[in-house]
Amino acid sequence: MRSNSHTSSGSGKSAVGMTAATRSLESERVTLHSVNKRVRQKSKRRGTGRRAGQGAKLYKQGYRRGYDQGVAQGQSSFGLVFEGVSIIIPTYNQRDYVLKCIASIEKHTPAPYEIIVVDNASKDGTAQALLRIGGVVRVAALDVNRGFAGGVNYGLMMARGRHIVVLNNDTLVTPGWLDNMMTCLDSDPKIGVVGPVTNYIGGDQQIEVPYREVEDMWSFASRHNRPDAKKHRLTDRLVGFCWLFTRELWERVGYLDEGYAVGNFEDDDWIIRVKLAGYELAVAGDAFIHHFGSVSMKALGEQDYVVVNQDNEQFFSKKWGDPHALVAETNKLALREMLPAGLQSKKQMDSRQRISTQGSADLALSFRRSSEFYPEGSFISDAKGEVYTVVGGHRRKLNIPVPRGISPVQIAKPELLSIPSGEAVESTNEIQAWPLEAHQLRSSSMEGSGNLWPNGTIVAAADAPETCYQISGGKRRRFVTTYAFERWGVHSAHIVHVPAEQLRLIEEGWPIIAPPQLLNEDL
């Protein structure tokens, strides 16, 4: 149900919302790709000579001057966000489909936007065809296929819009699609991600359609897409063939997990993290787009598709266990913190019902960052190797060598920067080992308190050793799965086995999840 996608060097032409530094770098690749071809053609006609040599010299001088000016402008405008939409389309060997998709966007999307196509090392001439389009189309022509998650991540890294759309390459957008989805997103601040309805998809986003041929689809879509807020409703799941969300949400939730091969389940994974962050999902029932359906996945062949799907499903289960129970438990914890005790039993709204027009004035919004689900005292790093320790919800940069025995976990730069900055660590005396070794711990006499064990201790009930917790801030925080436990470098030598009754006396805190795998060092 998703297209393949991802990774390496980007190439594209200038577009709305693109920083000049990126424009100059990407324009260099695009221009060299096309100009060299023209130069070779002229050389055949005119041969080599003094005039040709002088022309080539002048061209190089002008090109260098323009490049330097672009770099200077880009440095001064780096990080600027434009008030429009970045539409990210990952693709692999589907040139005709992606060109049709782009044509539909250009025809039916009046809002300010940029199109970012991430070509996953296609061999069908996709990149070359895209580079000829120009305009608001930016192209990242990667030299390795990194799958759907990797392709989307590369596009997210390039995106400059205040809003972001992730779109399958085998779709056709229709009149009013984006305006209606945007209206749905803006209808309630609790809504984080919006999806449309379509003719072909899993779940409750699929609707019955009267047409069989694409030519007959357009008239149906025009009638269906008449703005109607009554068709907006909350849902429990949104398939990743088309998402709309804000840059702010992405900065809280982070990139897709690249541990999923090719495609499938990476969208479910990301949606779980969206819900853990406190957001809700919505379907804009008045926004219909056509979906040809899993074109890239079907190209694998039935046998390979089954293998990829099974492997990704197993990885999803290993990472999350029971994600629905996890989300429900996290929402209860959030409600406990947000509401007085007398209101904590307030009945929750049916997730399938229509969105309330009253908004959320009766409920204080409290969205969370992915890093709030990371363990206290852990060590994290970015792609450049800079190392931080997470203490009290802040990141503290290590200005000292990483202590022996510590293996920092890499996370993406945007996610790292979303963690509030604390004072730098200048001495080894300011940090403790991670994870704490069980034999190094000594219990205090403060029974019935969260301080029964030192902050950062990894514990498990004697009668349920497979479920581990970290003691943090006077609370017990459960590792959601063994995979999460291992992802943070914890193993059996770190576990202190304690009586179950003592563990139950400690208040429950945020669960601890595994960070996404990132295979692209540029993220």
Largest sheet: 9 strands, mixed
Number of domains: 4
Instruction: Examine the secondary-structure arrangement and name the CATH architecture of the largest domain.
Output: Alpha-Beta Complex
Count every helix, treating DSSP H or I runs of 4 or more residues as helices. 15
Radius of gyration: 26 Å
Please tell me the overall pLDDT: 83
Structural class: alpha/beta
- pLDDT < 50 stretches: 1-46, 344-353, 356-364, 442-450
What is the overall shape?
globular
What can you see in these coordinates?
Residues 1-55 are annotated as: Disordered. Residues 1-14 have a biased composition (Low complexity). Residues 86-252 form the Glycosyltransferase 2-like domain. InterPro entries: Glyco_trans_2-like, Nucleotide-diphossugar_trans. The longest helix has 28 residues, at 50-77. The strands form three sheets. Strands 1, 2, 3, 4, 5, 6, 7, 8 and 9 form a nine-stranded mixed sheet that branches. A five-stranded mixed sheet has the order 17-14-15-16-18. The chain has helices spanning 20-46, 50-77, 95-108, 126-131, 147-158, 177-186, 217-224, 247-253, 266-276, 295-298, 302-320, 323-338, 413-418, 482-487, 500-504; strands at residues 82-91, 113-120, 137-142, 161-167, 171-172, 191-198, 232-235, 242-246, 280-291, 379-381, 387-391, 394-397, 409-410, 458-461, 464-472, 475-478, 495-498, 507-508. Strand 2 (113-120), helix 4 (126-131) and strand 3 (137-142) form a beta-alpha-beta unit. Residues 1-46, 344-353, 356-364 and 442-450 have low confidence and may be disordered. The chain folds into four domains: 1-8 and 81-359, Alpha-Beta Complex (Spore Coat Polysaccharide Biosynthesis Protein SpsA, Chain A); 18-78; 370-430, Type VII secretion system EccB, repeat 1 domain (TTHA1013/TTHA0281-like, 2-Layer Sandwich), CATH 3.30.2390.20; 438-508. Helix content is 34%, strand content 19%. The relative contact order is 0.11. It is an alpha/beta fold. It is globular and about 75 Å long. Helix 1 packs antiparallel against helix 2.
